[in-house]
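Hi there, hope your week has been kind to you so far. Do you reckon you could talk me through the fold, stretch by stretch? Thanks so much in advance, here it is.
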Amino acid sequence: MSLQQSFKCFMSETQSITLNIVLNNVKDRYLEMIDSSDDVYVNTMKNKMLSTLSNMTVQYDEYHGQFYQDYSEVTLYLILKHNDLDITPLARKSYSTPDFRIVLAGKDYFVENKCLMPMNTVINMAGLQEQMLEVNIELEEKSKKKGVHFGAPIVCQPHRANTEKYSHNANLLVIDNIIRKVVQNCKSSQLSKNTILMIDMTHLPLHHRPTSSAFIYLGSDELVYTAPLWISCFGKIGTPVFGVKEFPLGNFEGYMEIDGIFNSINELNAIAFRFDDWTGDSVFIGFDRYGFDMDRLIQSFCKESNNDRNRHCFPSLM
């Protein structure tokens, strides 16, 4: 049985009982690309994913996260290869070995892929599954009676953390989560001056479409708010942050209490954020330090790119 068919069977069983917000983001067409590929690396990853899938149950556990991590890595490889990049998987000799090497214009670049899971996994994954199971049981009982029946609403909050420091829709919460997640998952030993860190953000969506600008202008509300990706990269402790909601005294939320990614990881010179929605293609937004010659690589596959001294750091019209 193909990976695509095996996964469909697993998801059909899951959805008859509960939900899985992580695996819901697996795209059918990417599974088809994996199945149809004759690439040695892709086939190796396919077999690994099939093995992981065989150990998975409906209840969320570490196998689910591993499956998506591998899916994120192999689909990144296929996407970059589709963009005509000379990409080669690297044999994992140690934890510090990057995932891929790209040769562009006679220069070697290295790629390290990281997939970020929702914050507070116990609440956002296991808790949601338990809620959905209870709703399904309730609906099954109600269905014995005539009429139209509705279950209790279930709200997914992937940015919900263990702390109540910020409100659930605060821009500061999103920015803080991005920085902490990236710094936590990235080790200096995995980086070189020619390494680009790829961050799969599919499970940590933003309030608005991703952009490389530092600010976003909401014309309908005449608001300017801080775009979370740019500030997550280049912000510093004390940088003011403006949110998407206007309060009686404006939409100023507060000041950053931690340094941004580039100010926290000195060895990192380039980063690209990946976003997959349920219907469209994968979108990449890139950032790099000014003067480190990473622009050529970033612009070869990113929809937008920016750096700490780019003259295009201005509000995006939404």
About this structure: Residues 119 and 188 are 23 Å apart (CA to CA). DSSP finds nine helices and twelve strands in the chain. Residues 171-317 form one domain.
